[in-house]
Amino acid sequence: MDRAFFEQLAMPLFDQLYNHACWLTGDRADAEDLVQETYAKALKGFGSFAEGTNLRAWLFRILRNAFLNSRSGLKQKTEYLEDEERGADEGVAHEVTPEALFLASESQDAIFSALERLPVAHREIILLCDVDEMSYREISQVLDVPAGTVMSRLARARTNLRKELGAGTKEAVR
Amino acid sequence: MTSCSQDRNALAAYLDGELPADQERSLQEHLRTCPACAARVASLVSLRRAMKPAATRFVPSAEFRRKVQGRVAPKRSVGSRWMWPAAVAALAVMVLAVVWTRQSSLSDHAFREVADLHVSDLASANPYDVVSSDRHTVKPWFQGRIPFAFNLPEFAGSEFTLLGGRLVYLRQQPAAQLIVGAGKHKISVLITQESSLGSGLPFFGGVAVRDSFNVETWEKNGLRFYVIGDAEQGAIQRLAQALQGVNG
């Protein structure tokens, strides 16, 4: 195992992993623990990491597993299950109009707090896709689910986010 | 407004750049003629753009980056930095310095091995050979596995919990590694025979901070103890005192 090689590949992802960990845990100290654990595990397993595979997806996956095994993650684990159980028939009735969405995107605070209110499974997938700009394929590697699940979960997550944003703006207007 | 039958997932996939080329073309055609879908796409684009600041909302501190970087980076020798003031000093000082440097590199080696054992244990999927919070289970387990004996304090009712132990090798000599939990932190206690590490006094008493680990070490009756972890100094010290108390 080449530590210098690992450092060269993995350290550029440090900021991204830390930011993601903060979004997951909502706590900087917990996020630091997670990132630290991620790097320790990745360093240890780097020998078995096949070159040519996606290092970013691999690191995010280690981080995610560490999160799910952490104290704050365990609490959220049920949310993942619930998300899978919920049907795909999201009511269109709750859909927010494009106009309202435009309005909501004007406010960064509104977006951040809507993201924070999402269940962690939804927050996570939206961040991976829209913020970390991962492909569906990468996301399916991180979450260890088929690509079809990525699409459907992403759709549910976005519907949910729009709902939260709509709720936020209504409150603001009142 | 919602009369269009266009699949919404396809719109999203289009924006994510995940639509096959032929479908992408036909969707672009459709957007030109369907104001409802076009408005929808526009609002999704603006929402996504507005989400970008989430990427840099949380920035790690420089201190934390150094900490992780320090653990990831290849180990570099620190000897030469200490050597040069000795080189310009008088001969007597130089002789002393040489002796001192030898000892410090010896202790440096010992420390790194101890730190490696600690970190690799934390990262391991099977961190313990013997899993128990009971010192009466853990201590006897080592009998016949290590050529010496040690005592463990009673952890019940203290801030510490015994998590387990494993047999490791420090300088090609068997050593007992005990993992002790202190809040969220894990502390390693390593016990080995002193002769195996030579006479280099690895540390000069008290808790030392090395690579952001807190370490305490001492020698008693031919046994060398190391207590290492990222728990606060006070916790390391209290654990060390508890161990010293029963191994006097």
Describe this structure in words.
The complex is a heterodimer of chains A (174) and B (248). The termini of chain A are far apart. Chain A has helices spanning 3-10, 14-25, 28-45, 55-69, 71-85, 98-105, 108-117, 120-131, 136-143, 147-173. In chain A, helix 3 packs across helix 4 and helix 7 packs across helix 10. Mean pLDDT of chain A is 82; it is low at 87-93. Chain A is mostly helical and 174 residues long. Chain B contains eight helices and seven strands; from the N terminus they run H-H-H-H-H-H-E-H-E-E-E-E-E-E-H. Chain B has helices at residues 8-15, 21-33, 35-51, 62-72, 79-88, 91-123, 135-141, 233-246; strands at residues 130-131, 160-170, 173-182, 185-193, 208-210, 213-220, 223-229. Chain B is elongated. The chains are: A mainly alpha (174), B alpha+beta (248). At the A-B interface, helix 1, helix 2, helix 3, helix 6 and helix 7 of A face helix 1, helix 3, helix 4 and helix 6 of B.
Q: How are the secondary structure elements laid out?
A:
The complex is a heterodimer of chains A (174) and B (248).
Chain A: H1 3-10, H2 14-25, H3 28-45, H4 55-69, H5 71-85, H6 98-105, H7 108-117, H8 120-131, H9 136-143, H10 147-173
Helix pairs in contact in A: 2-3, 2-4, 3-4, 4-5, 4-9, 6-10, 7-10, 8-10, 9-10
Chain B: H1 8-15, H2 21-33, H3 35-51, H4 62-72, H5 79-88, H6 91-123, E1 130-131, H7 135-141, E2 160-170, E3 173-182, E4 185-193, E5 208-210, E6 213-220, E7 223-229, H8 233-246
Antiparallel strand pairs in B: 1-2, 2-3, 3-4, 4-7, 5-6, 6-7
Helix pairs in contact in B: 2-3, 5-6
